[in-house]
Amino acid sequence: MDDTSSPGHLYRNTSLGTTLLDSLDEMVMDGRMTPKFACKIVENFDIAMISVLRSKVKARLDLKGKLEDYRCINDEWYMVLKDVVVTLDGRGAAREKIVLDNLDVRMVKDAKR
């Protein structure tokens, strides 16, 4: 269940996602579920997370800063921003430095659709 082609794969690292994956792995190992069925459940989880977050989350986050360093390897970005202002729903906070790691280009492309 290491498929990272879905933009929803990022939510598998949440506490909800890891708990689901652990439970599914245990059920597959015990023979109570086929690996194919477990993968289908994970695919549905990815789709559901994207759908719920798009329809229910109304918050907006903006980052503004100076790009100090960046690189892209295999469609995954790493960025270091300096003198960053983070604004969440109009309320701001300043930070000296923020590191953004493993930004998946495919996720950004899918979000624009």
TrEMBL record:
Q: Does the keyword Transcription apply?
A: yes
Query: Pfam family of this protein, just one?
Result: TFIIA_gamma_N
Name the InterPro entries for this protein: TFIIA_a-hlx (IPR009083), TFIIA_b-brl (IPR009088), TFIIA_gsu (IPR003194), TFIIA_gsu_N (IPR015872)
Subcellular localization is given as: Nucleus
Assigned GO CC terms: transcription factor TFIIA complex
Residues annotated as domain Transcription initiation factor IIA gamma subunit N-terminal: 10-53
For this UniProt record, the keywords arranged alphabetically read as follows: Nucleus, Transcription, Transcription regulation
Q: Which GO terms describe its biological process?
A: transcription initiation at RNA polymerase II promoter
Q: What does the UniProt function comment say about this protein?
A: TFIIA is a component of the transcription machinery of RNA polymerase II and plays an important role in transcriptional activation. TFIIA in a complex with TBP mediates transcriptional activity.
Q: According to its UniProt record, which protein family does this protein belong to?
A: Belongs to the TFIIA subunit 2 family.
Name this polypeptide is given: Transcription initiation factor IIA subunit 2
What is the species of this protein?
Answer: Sphaerosporella brunnea
